[in-house]
Design brief:
eight-stranded mixed β-sheet; four-stranded mixed β-sheet
Length: about 300
């Protein structure tokens, strides 16, 4: 019996570190990644795919900044929509080609997805999410005088930082649930397009970036998924990573996972948000999986990856 699975793919799987940001490079990576997703569908599961967009939206913002004297730069929420569109286009194309080659009876649809946040979220008082290109200290000071919030980033220079509010509602959930029984759905890319409601109830975009793992968790909760699967470039989660007593985690409970988080076992910029999202989903009595792309089908069978359950 197939499971309802939300699959979260990182943006670095689409554009790898140090790789030139050409369309051809990204599309080749997408072709490889989606081949494994079709294997999940072929195994009988119902899937919704969400994806990161960190490198892609950063490059779109860099293009905006480079051309600002010619074309008015676009707001961040519009840049997010752009990245959703072109990544979704690549993924849908690759998935449809894989499906045709394998003779699978299914379709694919990409949904441009808004994700609602609270305009009074505390994140708007403390922007922390770095985006876009690096600047010198002098350039950063100039941008701060223009009203931007800038921060030093790991000794590499200064970057603009924006709020990263908590996702409250994924828009279009009813449609996603209806479609996913027969169709592969791509939704909520890059954490979703951040929007909020005015007191009148009208929807407006807002300058923010939503964490993709938190948004993927919300998506999994709202579509009533049985499994929330986060695909990474490592086969398992590890404790004491890189040390002599390094240990691979295969199946752990929520209590064990929370203990490892409390010990500081996971880096804040990479595995920690995944583990936090996995714990929250597993608390619902469901299953969270963190694994590599090529082991996704085996992980769903309990034969690979790291599984977190209640």
């Amino acid at each position: 019996m197939g499971k309802r699975v939300v699959i979260a793919l990182g943006g670095n799987a689409i554009l790898q570190p140090q790789q030139e940001a050409t369309y051809d490079n990204q599309f080749k990576n997408v072709i490889s990644a989606t081949r494994h997703m079709v294997e999940i569908k072929e195994a009988g599961h119902k899937i919704v795919i969400t994806h990161g967009n960190g490198p892609q939206v950063g490059n779109i913002i860099a293009q905006n900044e480079a051309a600002k004297n010619v074309v008015e730069p676009l707001p961040i929420h519009v840049c997010n929509a752009e990245s959703q569109g072109f990544i979704g286009y690549m993924m849908e194309t690759a998935l449809k080609n894989h499906i045709k080659e394998r003779g699978i009876t299914s379709n694919v649809v990409t949904l441009l997805t808004m994700v609602e946040v609270d305009k009074d979220d505390q994140a708007f008082k403390n922007p922390t999410k770095p985006i876009g290109v690096f600047f010198s200290e002098e350039e950063a000071q100039r941008l701060e005088r223009q009203g931007f919030t800038m921060a030093e980033d790991a000794g590499r220079g200064y970057r603009r930082v924006v709020p990263s509010p908590e996702p409250k509602v994924i828009h279009g959930i009813d449609e996603i649930q209806r479609l996913m029984d027969e169709t592969i759905v791509i939704s909520s890319g890059g954490g979703g397009i951040p929007v909020y409601r005015k007191d009148s109830g009208q929807i407006h975009g807002i300058e923010a970036v939503i964490d993709k793992d938190r948004s993927g968790l919300k998506l999994a909760q709202q579509v009533n998924a049985e499994v929330f699967m986060m695909l990474t470039d490592v086969p398992n989660v590890y404790i004491n990573f890189g040390k002599e007593n390094e240990q691979k985690l295969s199946h752990i409970t929520v209590a064990e996972a929370e203990q490892y988080v409390a010990e500081g076992q996971f880096p804040a910029g990479s595995m920690l948000p995944k583990m936090q999202a996995a714990i929250e989903f597993a608390k619902l009595g469901k299953e969270s999986i963190i694994c590599s792309l090529d082991q996704a089908v085996a992980a769903l069978d309990g034969k690979a990856g790291t599984r977190i359950t209640k």
